[in-house]
Amino acid sequence: MNSKVLVSIRVAAAPEHAFAVFTGEIGLWWRANPLFNFTPRSPGVLSFEPPGPDGRGGRLVEVLPDGKVFEIGEVRIWAPGERLVFGWRQATFAPGQETEVEVRFEAVGAETRVTVEHSGWDSVPAEHVARHGFPDLVFLQRHGEWWRALLVSMRARAS
After folding, report:
1. How far apart are CA 58 and CA 73, in angstroms?
2. CB distance 131 to 139 below 8 Å
């Protein structure tokens, strides 16, 4: 079974602009949720470090209030205006426990459909603190609601 969240929203912007806001302004539109903190010291400010010219080295990080940097995940695909894929882990994840976020940017007339697919939750046991004891379907629903709220915030920033 592949436990995942799938959320889409339309943004009144071109795909390239929506991608730029998602990646370059994430620290401005991201809204922390106490259920889904990355570290016990969260929330901090999120930012993407884009890959270098060779396509390697990008990552999503959270800069904590004390200045420490927590790496949430490495960027796996960075295709401006089209697609973004990155790893996602919390500080409490054991080795081998990692989820993946894929974000697609698709032109729909004068708008862009932004789709987030957050998969791999089956690698994180149901009793793990990150899942708060919720049954799989409840956890995924709550996580999906949060992603939807995040995309609404991103849409407001991009429009």
Report:
1. 9
2. yes
Average pLDDT, the chain: 89
Q: Which amino acid is at 144?
A: G
pLDDT at 34: 74
Q: What is the pLDDT of residues 115-130, one digit of tens each?
A: 999 998 777 777 776 7
Task: Give the span between the Cα atoms of 89 and 92, in whole angstroms.
Answer: 8
Helix, strand counts (H, E) of the chain = 3, 7
Q: Which residues contact 109 (CB under 8 A, 6 or more apart)?
A: none
Strands 99-108 and 83-88: antiparallel
pTM of the entire predicted model = 0.91
Q: Looking at domain 4-31+76-158, does it have CATH number 3.30.530.20? A: yes
Distance CA 142, CA 57 (A): 31
